[in-house]
Known about the structure:
Elements: H1 11-41, H2 47-50, H3 56-92, H4 96-111, H5 114-122, H6 125-141, H7 143-153, H8 156-182, H9 186-194, H10 199-214, H11 216-229, H12 241-251, H13 260-294
Helix pairs in contact: 3-4, 3-8, 3-12, 4-8, 5-8, 6-7, 8-10, 8-11, 9-10, 11-13, 12-13
Amino acid sequence: MSSVLFDTPGPRARRRHALIGVLAVLGIAALAGYVIVRLRDAGQFTPAMWEAFAYEGVQRRILIGALETLKAFSLAVVLSLLLGVLLACGRLSEHRLLRWPATALVEFFRAMPLLIMIFALYNTGWLRSCVTTAGRFLRTELGRTGNWLADNFASPTLWALVIGITLYNGSVQAEILRAGALAVPRGQREAAYALGLRKTQVMLTVVLPQAVRSMLPAIVSQIVVTLKDTSLGFIITYEELLYAGKLLAQNTATPSGYPYIPVLLVVGPMYIGMCLALSACAKWLARRGRRRRNGIRIGPVPRP
């Protein structure tokens, strides 16, 4: 069967493609084998490299790093989605006073390197003073609950990381939502206006729900990017998972050297597992949404 995009390969082309695929697999396998042999010769797979992971303190430190990663990720996801909705509504507004500033913010934060934003926020005095003031208020006004909140959330490094990730990913989410909103058929908006709904009601009840549903794969992909962006916190000494692994690798000396590869083999799968869990959750939400849409059935028309 021919395609409109390319010609269907013939027998010789298929054999050539199969040969190229086999050679590529063999080349990748040879390269991986070479890397493994060199690492083995360097002593990265010796038992001494893995002894540190048997200690309860090291295990607890890695677990705390994972929890700190999830804490920053949760805050950044909620704030970036809220910011994305606000900026998307601003860009879709018919008023220039709302559309132009929203467009400028989206284009600026999308173009600004995330690492520079995080580092700049970490070195600003106003952020430190605001976080310190908020922590002092929580401790004095809320008692034991305030102490818990201040101990876990009143950290300048945490909020420098969260705000930087929020500004960048929120602007990207705004563009994703705007694209989904523009894909909604115009007739649905006109029908909503004909029913007497206002612009805000049309946006919140008709346009945005369909935009989120249609752009859910892209939204989830950006959420996964948000999770991976939390690893930039080690630049400002935020004690997340990558920072915990870095401390472990740099402070654990063995006769064969420092355990950089074992730490990578432990921390890397943890990041991959969290990303796969997010993807699985997104697939479950998508299937549930499809079942809800397909759950309404029109029965057979009764015969007279």
